[in-house]
Amino acid sequence: MLPQVLEKFALSRDDVLHDYRLAVLNREASRLGYQEVMLGKAQFGIFGDGKEVPQLAWARAFRKGDWRTGYYRDQTFMMAIGELTLEQFFAQLYGHADVRYEPACGGRNMNNHFGTRLLNPDGTWKPQTENYNVVADVSPTGSQMPRLVGLALASKLYRELDELQALTQFSRRGNEVAWASIGNATCAEGLFWETLNAIGVLQVPAVISVWDDEYGISVPNEYQLTKDLYQMLQGFQRRGPDDRGFEVRQVKGWDYPALIEAYQEASRVARAEHVPVILHVVELVQPSGHSTSGSHTRYKSRERLQWEAEHDGLRRFRAWILEQGLATEEELAALEKAAKREVRQALKRAHAAFVAPRKQEADELVRLLEQAAQQYPAAQATLTALKGEVLALDVPYRAATLGIVRRALMALREAPGAVRAPLIRWRKQVEAGGRRDYSTFLYSPWPSAATQVPEVPPRYAADAPEVAGFEVLNKFFDIVLGRDPRVIAFGEDVGHLGGVNQAFRGLQAKYGPWRVMDTGIREATILGQAIGLALRGLRPIAEIQYLDYLLYALQIMSDDLATVLWRSAGGQKAPVIVRTRGHRLVGIWHAGSLMAGLIHLVRGMHVLVPRDMTRAAGFYNTLLQGDEPGIVVEVLNGYRLKERLPDNLGEFTVPLGVPEIVRPGNDVTLVTYGAMVRIVLQAAEALAQVGIDAEVIDVQSLLPFDVRGVIVESLRKTNRVVFLDEDVPGGTTAYMMQEVLEKQGGYQWLDSPPLTISAQPHRPAYGFDGDYFSKPSVDEVFYKVYGLFHELNPRRWPLFFEEPEA
Ligand SMILES: Cc1ncc(C[n+]2csc(CCOP(=O)(O)OP(=O)(O)O)c2C)c(N)n1
């Protein structure tokens, strides 16, 4: 007789034994993985032992088309859905950089950071409804949560919007559940609560599992949470079918039948009703402690350790199977023995596969060192010693062999070139292999890259109307929403009001509340919402109301969005467009220009700084035609300025990384962007009156930066360069200077020292004078650039604005 719950969910005895076998495999894999780190065969290990049983129940509720966003404990779940083999588990532990062996991240991420390959090798999407979809994990705890908002919201959009029904490779009428996992201690983080609240407001099909083992590394729950977590979560419980909220359940992490029931029910409620669920899974343990960084006996009492041993899910699951008569002691013992052997064998295979290519390279190196020693006896002793070093390496990591080759080449520096050549070739080849393994996929390598989008210049009719900047955007977004149902725009005040600057005015009324959405004040999950939607095939435009408030979302932009493609080694992409506005308006928090902070933290995204709204529209068009994430920083004080309206607003594109010369000149090149373009142009007019003919260049795109060398071309002519912006000293001006002088070799054309003009190091102050004394003004630009010419020729350009020396 099968236990009732199994009958209810059509589970057989074989299913239960299959699950038990997976639990044993996982426990053994964790144990051996730990051991590999202790043996020095891997750098670091963090494992899923103690969390096996709930994950087996979860996997049974998880369907094709569903999504999982979780963290490093989900090892058993990954194996149970068939998206992690034992070989792959060990390959990741070793850092195998070949995606054929380690498909989650190609050796870029720590172990137990999971992910499935959502993309075909050419960068196009695989059919998500036919696959299990796992977002590539990140290490910052809690950062798996914001994207859950978008993953779950996508189901709602696919259910609500008829215009999306053709996209069956992404959804079948929104029947997909987005599942998250999180540790108890991470529930102390704001990201967790912000995500819960957003999901509760939206009523979208998310199921959140909290793996509660009562600790966060060494810190127990009493230091993490005000009250018992379950009690705290009760506030989110819906009070009836018409109420908004979650279904909140608590279940013991060792109780297999209760877990099966809880997960089946959660799946049903979320899938059918789009009601979110929280499963607080308690009484979980950590048999081998938090990670390989240190033993948990340092901070857990003897009593606690004893309690953990008794409540260990594996042990309890086993006892339950015996109790229910589903297997005999002998049967389980045989199953365990076979499973453990299987793990050992997988470990061996994975290690051999990891070492083989390194070994091959090292063998070749040994041969080349011998050959060189023969050909150049003067270095024989050194080369023989170096060969010995290669042979002594357990695993000939490139980090070690390349150092040996450098020393060999140093010993051979006076040898004939022909003796060195084979070693040089070896070095080049191995280095190229390393670059390929670790440095590819920061940006899209595919034809769909935003940088590949063809340039279409704006076209103006003779009688092109002049309209306010915001109207250009308003007309543009109307075109975009009308032609592509995948475009979903949202942010604070974006829906009903149409945005604080009116760029979406009237568009919610026209396209509906699911296409142009208001969100709560929740920048991190606005970003996460965009990431989740983009992963599910939609084209979100996420608005962060002001650049200054981007900091709330910057962590997610930096840790998640900017790294998706790179950290999955080309397996996942999230073409999110972030829209914001900044640079210059009023006061500390509405006039910031934190561009250096931004460009340095979001490598992997495009960072675009158009000087007006027409160019902003051109950039949005470019990004929408590509498949990469980008941020467009509009000029805050430009919405009311008049611009000529192009005829081809829907088609024209501004290419990425191409500066524009906005004022030609011969004497000095002034390089700037954004709101500063107008100031610099005014300063250039003043300079012209005193005989200085400045060329003004609008960079437009900070990442990528001047890919065609427009600025160096200008420098060749003017031989003088000034970099200007509203960022802090040493910020983006320093970045631009490095790009032009160092990377593009602009230094060789300089006849004067390069100059940077930026804002004060403090935040911008309020009011007209606050602005004047915080940001570069026309006056300051004039005086400083003039000073450059005074240095050059004091007679021609005397310091007429200084008192003559006595
Ligand atoms: C933002 C952030 N802070 C700190 C850490 C370091 N850290 C890694 S795991 C961890 C504890 C997490 O505890 P919990 O959420 O309970 O999950 P568990 O490991 O117990 O499953 C900490 C503090 C991190 N990875 N990210």
Poorly predicted runs: none
**In terms of structural class, how would the helical and strand content be classed?**
alpha/beta
- The count of DSSP E runs of length 2 or more, i.e. the number of strands, is 22
Globally, the shape reads: globular
Strand content: 5-15%
**What is the spatial order of strands in the main beta sheet?**
11-10-12-13-15-14-20
Largest sheet: 7 strands, mixed
Query: Ligands bound here?
Result: thiamine diphosphate
Distance between the termini: 109 Å
- Radius of gyration from CA coordinates: 30 Å
Q: What is the residue-averaged pLDDT?
A: 97
Oligomer: single chain
**Count of alpha and pi helical runs:** 28
Describe the protein's architecture and organization.
With 806 residues, the chain is of the alpha/beta class. It has 28 helices and 22 strands. The strands form five sheets. Strands 11-10-12-13-15-14-20 form a seven-stranded mixed sheet, sandwiched between helices. Strands 2-1-3-4-8-7 form a six-stranded parallel sheet, with helices on both faces. Strand 18 (668-672), helix 24 (676-689) and strand 19 (694-698) form a beta-alpha-beta unit. The longest helix is centred in the middle third of the chain and has 47 residues, at 329-375. 51% of the residues are buried. The mean pLDDT is 97. The structure holds thiamine diphosphate. Residues 73, 139-141, 183-186, 211, 213, 215-217, 290 line the site of thiamine diphosphate.
